Amino acid sequence: MTCQELVELVTDYLEDALDPETRDRFEEHLALCPGCETYLHQMAETATRLGQIPVETLSGEAQAVLLTAFRDVRDGRTPM
Amino acid sequence: MLHLARSFVATQASAEEVVQDTWLAVIQGIDDFEGRSTVRTWVYRILINTAKKRGLRESRTVPWSSMFTEDDGRPTVDPTLFRGADDEYPGGWVSFPPPWTTTEDEVLAGEVRARLRDAIDTLPERQRTVVTLRDVLGHTATEVCEMLAISEGNQRVLLHRGRAAARARLAPYLEVTGHG
After folding, report:
1. Do B96 and A35 touch (CB under 8 A)?
2. C-beta atoms of B135 and A51 within 8 A
3. Where do the structural domains in chain A lie, given as residue ranges?
4. Binary contact (B24, A69; C-beta < 8 A)
5. pLDDT at A30 exceeding the cut of 90
6. N or C: which end of chain A has fewer CB within 10 A?
7. Residues of chain B found within 8 Å of residue A80, distances taken between Cβ atoms
């Protein structure tokens, strides 16, 4: 397995989707190759950091419309 | 939800309306919810259907199933970073990727989040949707496959391509320089 091949298997590895034989070759390569180890960690870190993006809040105006709609539904009026 | 809606429609305002319509559909349909999936999955399925309908109306989205061109098997890492076929170590790194900083300050963290938002915005739609659902919103692979009606393998390909693009976008901001 070359470095160029390994980098395309990183997500399958992280998702535990590699067959056992490929996973062994992946891990053997990783043990000997600091560059690929770095790449793997950076892909995992990217996923973690994506999870730290606050889900955007609606704009004030949109929230007001939403709250009105919720109230209408609660009070039995047909919204919009 | 807004992130996800935005991947189907043309404007932020449209996405906000999709989210509102989704909540209304949820409130009105909650009595019919049969408990065959988690509430979260059910809500997102409504969101996706609402967003898709709206996206089609806006003629922005191409049918999900006909968009396979973005999974065309191109490498996700710049091929010039690897040694050529005539090298002693073909396919090996020309030089190892520089490590990323482990020190964190708020300025850097803010910069990183901004770069990731840019990266998400520039991803092809299917990748953007999968990355948003999996990594930003934290859904499981199984949930995402169910919501989007795609195979596990396809889901992984989209996630991989999206994450690799995001990693490449982050690298210049996090690389530790001065270690040769």
Report:
1. yes
2. yes
3. 3-74
4. yes
5. yes
6. C
7. 24
Q: What is the band of A57 on the pLDDT scale with cuts at 50, 70, 90?
A: very low
C-beta atoms of A59 and B24 within 8 A: no
| CB proximity B1 to A under 8 Å | yes
Q: Which residues of B touch A46 (CB under 8 A)?
A: 116, 163, 166-167, 170
pLDDT score of A69 more than 70: no
Report the topology of domain B69-180.
Arc Repressor Mutant, subunit A (1.10.10)
The highest-level CATH class for domain A3-74 is mainly alpha
Q: What is the pLDDT of residue B53?
A: 79
Q: Is B166 on the interface with A (CB under 8 A)?
A: yes
Q: Hey, is the C-beta of B111 within 8 angstroms of any chain A C-beta? A: no
Each residue of B18-66: pLDDT tens digit? 888 888 888 777 777 777 777 788 888 888 888 887 777 765 444 444 4
Residues of B in contact with A19 (CB under 8 A): none
The domain segmentation of chain B, as residue ranges, is 1-61, 69-180
pLDDT tens digits, one per residue of B102-122: 887 888 888 898 888 888 888
Residue B57 touches chain A, beta carbons under 8 Å? no
Write down the architecture of domain B1-61 according to CATH.
Answer: Orthogonal Bundle (1.10)
DSSP chain B: -HHHHHTTSSSHHHHHHHHHHHHHHHHHHGGG--SSS-HHHHHHHHHHHHHHHHHHHTT-PPPGGG-GGGGS---SS-GGGB--TTSSSTTSBSSPPPPBP----HHHHHHHHHHHHHHHHHS-HHHHHHHIIIIIS---HHHHHHHHT--HHHHHHHHHHHHHHHHHHHHHHHBPPS--
